[in-house]
Amino acid sequence: MKVSARYTRTAMFFHWLIALLIFLNLLLAWTFDLVPDAWGRPAVDIHKSIGITVLGLALLRLLWRFANPPPALPGSFAKIERAGAHAAHFGLYLLMICIPLSGWLHDSAWRDAATHPMQWFYLFQWPRIGFIMNLDPQLKERLHHLFGSLHVWLAYVLYGLFVLHVAGALKHEWWDRQSVLQRMVPWGKPKNDDLN
Prior knowledge:
Layout: H1 9-31, H2 37-67, H3 79-108, E1 118-120, E2 124-126, H4 130-133, H5 137-175
Antiparallel strand pairs: 1-2
Helix pairs in contact: 1-2, 2-3, 3-5
């Protein structure tokens, strides 16, 4: 059976939609201190809504990936390139799950969580993590700071992995002339089918 040289349309949809939502969420996070006070709470609420959406989409994307294995890398890739690509993808999937989860934990440990319901794009109320909300207030405050710091540091790791991910794709596209990017765009067509 011939291995597909391209990702499925569904995988492409998940990839680009999640990438767009992460970019929007990072943009929101970078501008929290710049927006007028009246816009601060709505900006944070939208940030939370996007984060929860990314978490759900990332889990769906993983399920799709298990049912529809991605195309093999070109056979000419060196072992270290293959290992790097697999490690970067594993890290990105892990971050797509852990960053929203840490944000959800951070929000659930917020001292005012009970009086400020979390809304998903103002369409319906999204639940907090109950056992976190019911902890002793002092412990909850410490966890709020801990999960907040974890959320921020995981975002920094995401920046680094994102740069490596894009740099790797561009290196193969422009330097090696062996496109992997073409496998992930709807209009693309791989330049070679040298697959394992």
